[in-house]
Amino acid sequence: MGMTAPTTPPDVPSQETFEAVYNGKPMFEGAPAAGVPWDIRDAQPRIKELAAYGALRGEILDIGCGLGENSIYLTQQGLSVTGLDFSPSAIEQAKQRAAAAGVTVDLQVADATKLDGWDGRFDTVIDSAVYHCFDHEGHQQYASALHRATRPGARWFIACFGDGTVNGIAMPFGVQDPEEIKTVLSDANWNIQYFGRTTYLGSRAAFVGAALAGIDPERMPADMRERSQRPGVAEQAQKTFERLQQLDDDLIHMPFFSIVAERGQMS
Fold it and tell me: Which end of the chain is more exposed for a tag (fewer CB within 10 A), N or C?
């Protein structure tokens, strides 16, 4: 059922970028091989909390599942989970981790902006740092694809780059516009039940390398160069880079938005 990623505009991370990261390679020639910044080798605390509350019900879609830690954890809790990601390398490694954990999880390659072949399959969607990977058009396609892939009454739990700082750490770029999120979800017949803030755990060491502070933008691929040259981005990246070096913890908390939306009926 899986398809490869769609053609990405310059402002959106490409499939090649993710493939490089998942294979331990630099994001581009001359960049450090930083590792996978979002790989904490465990489920995100927010996902564990939602599971403990009983908020994740029915058939669950872990969209953009990456290395599969959320899917593996939820399966261990007795929940029915399907993990989809557009990176073949991520899915291959997620399957290896699931096998090592002794669980069977349905993990497949798929395009989140299309989800061909998955119509009406899911009651719950968990989006753990996926929404901010798309531009506005991608957001629209993504929200519509999830509406098609879910059943009446389904809920979509989103965690994406937010504003503000946590312990001096801010997202240098990719911060989402709350009004844009609200408009996109409403237009795709998703009714927002909650919009607030949360944090997301990441690997400090990997984010030090991924901060890209001090690297000549001309050496970056187009999907990063444009972002790095926006007003204030380089300065914020440098501040974040310096702050990360001051911390001792292996894991860091990053500022994220938290959104819960319920699937509405098509008009």
Answer: C
